[in-house]
Amino acid sequence: MINYLVDGIRKKEAPIVVGLDPMLKYVPEHLKKEAFAAFGETPEGAAEAIWQFNKQIVDAVQDLVPAVKPQIAMYEQFGVAGVQAFQKTVDYCRSKGLVIIGDIKRGDIGSTSEAYAVGHLGQVQIGESRFYGFHEDFATVNPYLGSDGVKPFLKVCAEEKKGIFVLVKTSNPSSGEFQDQMIGDKTLYTLVAEKVAQWGEEVMGDTYSYVGAVVGATYPEMGAALRKVMPKTYILVPGYGAQGGKGSDLKAFFNADGLGAIVNSSRGIIAAYQQEKYAQYGAEHFAEASRAAVLDMKEDLRQAWER
Amino acid sequence: MINYLVDGIRKKEAPIVVGLDPMLKYVPEHLKKEAFAAFGETPEGAAEAIWQFNKQIVDAVQDLVPAVKPQIAMYEQFGVAGVQAFQKTVDYCRSKGLVIIGDIKRGDIGSTSEAYAVGHLGQVQIGESRFYGFHEDFATVNPYLGSDGVKPFLKVCAEEKKGIFVLVKTSNPSSGEFQDQMIGDKTLYTLVAEKVAQWGEEVMGDTYSYVGAVVGATYPEMGAALRKVMPKTYILVPGYGAQGGKGSDLKAFFNADGLGAIVNSSRGIIAAYQQEKYAQYGAEHFAEASRAAVLDMKEDLRQAWER
Known about the structure:
By secondary structure, the first copy, chain A, is of the alpha/beta class.
């Protein structure tokens, strides 16, 4: 799957992943109205609204980007109905040939971590048959529990040729509270990065490993350092746009071949129509605004690259 | 909810939480046969089997213990059908007056962490109405992302009088890879524990805080030290029984008043009938075996306390 992702990035000339984090406040009124008319102002209605919202955005951007990243929390908040909308979104994106990075940030130990790996990336054994669960292509994983939490994912990734992105240095302001602490002469996030590189050696794709890392766009100097610690690791970069990361900050995350990183934008793309810059599209044409925002992001990254 | 939990522990004289981690291999053949006859060897069939399994165990132990801890990974592995079984289990346990600790180990940032908090502990706003999602009473939370990940939970906990247990020192063999690293003169887990105590001050119950901690039974010396770092923090102790933690190790996790900790057992209780010790019950009477295992655990803890 990492090879397929790299291919997609090359072909579409876009190291961009669209974050499908559909908060209700991003969903245009007309979609909410239709969904609530059918299902009431209920979790089922909300789930229908975010699913229709996602679908139109995916239709509008699927030829421009290689991957999407649904954030499962935004679906889980609506309970079982929301989780169903997550599943529909994943299935729909797969039908469009998009790589699906499940932003699930799971992490547990032993058989429990294996259950997450199986449920999100692999197949569960039931009697004589095996079934895919949510069937994403990649999942984000939290490393706090150490190798016991990560290795069950590696096993499933090897079987299924799928991948993970391990949280190394997250984009939020307080990420330093624990991640930046010095352990001997290096930070905790560097120690995690070294482990990521080591875990990744066990499951290599053609050029990059099945094991990627999450490093926030908001910390470009750290990105540059981490790029060297993990040369064969794809870096998923959140925090571009709404969280403050700029295109000019991003070059540090890439290798000299122009590969090695994929930049996420969520709100900046899916809620583009709410920005003054794209207001001319109006709420009716929100998906076209999202398309325009992807094209602008692509250009921003291209210019950053040329500087 | 922390007050209600402490009350329950006192009244039932059992600082015990039953881990509802229903792997299919724990479910007796007759229950699987019935479920598969109705729904086929499918995720729906598996979900029905684990739900029926849970229900009988809950019926058999609900008067003995104050709380249950469903591990959501064991449900998520069956996709949407599994998540439905999780919801049914939570609802059923609530109807029995049990405290529900959702072992979800979530952790993200800002609005995403808030979405998890709302979906699992709080109420989501849809139009003019508010709806509970999964509606557990407590959730386990991963601290790797720092305060940005935890504070949205605190907000929801304050509103709903619910709580969280933050991972401090987990029970698994590799937990030390990152958690035991020295930062200056203290370990990472001690630093996290200090934060837990600090976060907990904002949301105090009568004697204990809404913010608890997870510390594995497999590390009793660390438990004793952490007990002092977090005097008003309830400690959720996994790793008893199957993972190697013994009753005699547990005293360290409690305060002098006999409170301050609640010990989890999953496999040791729910799959008791598979142990030689409880083999006389047979698979048909698996729930009675679970009841016997709870009574034995209660006695083991009582004896540990008297030594």
